[in-house]
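Here is an idea for our session: we take a single protein and study its fold together. To get us started, please write out a protein record for me. Start from the sequence, derive the backbone structure tokens from it, and show both lines together. Go ahead whenever you are ready, and we will take it from there:
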Amino acid sequence: MSGDDDWRLRYENVINHPWVKVEREWKSLDLVAQILEANQQDLLDLIHAFETSVEIALEWVNNVKNPNPTKDAFRLHFVRYLFNYLSSVTTLVDHTRKLMTRYEGSEVHAEYLAKVRAISNAGRGPLLQRLRNHALHDKIPPWRTEISFRGVVVSPETLDASIHLSRDQMLEYKDLPASARRFLESSAEKIPIAQIVKEYREEVKHVYDWLFGQVPVLHSADIAEYNDLVVAFQGAERTPGHPDYVPPEERSYLNPQ
């Protein structure tokens, strides 16, 4: 076997190793999780601005100015961020479900299903997914606002502002999951959107911190074998993390001028 043939064989052993495909799938899922985190932070930041900005509050209660650029722009941004958030909630659920079919029958898969059932029973996840379907196929979810000032002084300290969902209107949805219905029935009529988003974020974080931590355990043999193939292909001195790795700036002896 020539040197070129040996190099090509070692290269193909690396790129065709099963761990390459598996790692790509987990990185894709991690990207979807990051998109959800970014979308929910955008939504929370916008809600926080509404709840704390006197300028927005005064424009919001201004019934004289028509059109009202500030009010119109906020509505547009809020609905867009809400759509993005609800879509990414469902996307993460669907992508995870598909990826986890690879591990059916394992203890990790059984524990994953148990954690998913816990989130489902809490009701927030099913409600958010139902809101996404409602937004996609019917109409914008029933969001409402409230603004008032305590006393006569207008300032961030005296501002009471909120964005909420209407419990009673959501209870009218057809095919509402039982756990979502229980959640709504146990809630006040006005449900702060930020509250649901923050509580669901904690539920998701609990599951995915655990789930991503299982990957090195589930694939320890594959990862070790793949790393050995990488070392065989490019050499220990060129493999970061290997005890014999040599940083590029110290590698001149490998490539003499």
The radius of gyration is 26 Å. The mean pLDDT is 90. The chain has ten helices and three strands.
